[in-house]
Design brief:
The protein is an all-beta fold. It contains no helices and five strands.
């Protein structure tokens, strides 16, 4: 299941995904000992995606 949430972590939309597999991932690098917020991107390829 894929779930979209808003900034307050409230569920906005839900989707039932079948046949999903990751096709790419990217994220920012942090050096050892660094802390902070990072953005990550995950691309999925799937057969179907239906709203729940």
């Amino acid at each position: 299941m894929l779930v979209y949430v808003d900034a307050q972590n409230n569920v906005v939309k839900k989707f039932q995904v079948t046949g999903a597999r990751p096709t790419s991932w990217s994220g920012m690098d942090l050096a050892a000992g660094e802390t902070g917020q990072v953005d990550e991107t995950l691309q999925l390829k799937f057969i179907t995606c239906d709203p729940v």
